[in-house]
Specification:
Length: 192
């Protein structure tokens, strides 16, 4: 993955300022964008569900001074992230947990929560469980940023759907923005 992804190992979209810009700058712009949308500030507790290679949690801890926790069920990604946290000297503000999101302890609330490219692996059926967990983990007034691939409601499936189901998200499901917003609201999240 390191051969085709940038420095921050982001699977999802990046924000390029111009066509000649390199991927590292585009990834960094995306990460700043997410952190600013979450209004991150020093001391905030942030949880990243399905944190991948740890680019967001280490970036947020380093540049925004948050206490960041990543949750993953990928042993290889966890090994990578632990090395990254140590290399960046972020052991006191950043950690990754091998944990199914449903088993994250609810005894200490988070100020902010984020999910980037994770919901596609859960699908519509698991949205109530996931969004309910997000609500229980957030302190009152906390923020959750939801970033996922979606589909148009009420339309035909796009021609690339079979390819995506076979090669991109073999066990995934793309859910319409209407259904996603409905499930977010049902869980008690105020959509902005």
């Amino acid at each position: 993955y390191a051969l085709c992804l940038g420095k921050y190992m982001q699977y999802t979209c990046n924000y390029f300022a111009h066509p000649e810009e390199g991927i590292d700058a585009a990834e960094q712009r995306k990460l700043h964008h997410i952190c600013k949308k979450l209004y991150l500030k020093p001391g905030d507790r942030l949880i990243d569900f399905g944190c991948g290679w740890g680019g967001l949690i280490t970036f947020a801890a380093k540049h925004y001074g948050v206490e960041a926790v990543g949750v993953s069920i990928s042993q290889e990604q966890i090994k990578w992230v632990k090395r990254l946290i140590e290399a960046e000297g972020l052991q006191n503000r950043c950690r990754i947990e091998f944990c199914d999101y449903r088993n994250v302890p609810e005894d200490r609330p988070f100020d902010k929560a984020v999910s980037v490219g994770f919901i596609e692996h859960l699908g519509l059926k698991m949205m109530p469980t996931f969004f309910g967990k997000v609500m229980r983990l957030l302190r009152t007034g906390g923020l959750y940023l939801h970033h996922g691939i979606t589909m148009r409601p009420f339309g035909k499936f796009p021609p690339w759907r079979k390819f995506a189901q076979k090669y991109v998200f073999p066990d995934g499901e793309l859910v319409s923005i209407n259904d996603t917003c409905t499930e977010l609201a049902r869980a008690g999240l105020e959509i902005r």
